[in-house]
Amino acid sequence: MKKTTIEIFHILAGLGVAVAITWAAAWSYPLGRDVIWAGGAAAMVATLLMGAGPLRRARRLDQATRRTEA
How many structural domains comprise the chain? Predict the structure, then answer.
């Protein structure tokens, strides 16, 4: 469970950073707000997609570790 939790934290941290940067960019350039938020949304989707593989691996490792400990 430890590795899975760490991977989830990394994904959430990446999403938080993407939201913060997108918000700051949209705030600083209101004329491009829609385009900036579209780019930010794409970055957030990419963050989720890139985190899926490591999350799956971490889950498998946690399950294997749990089986050997039991």
Answer: 1
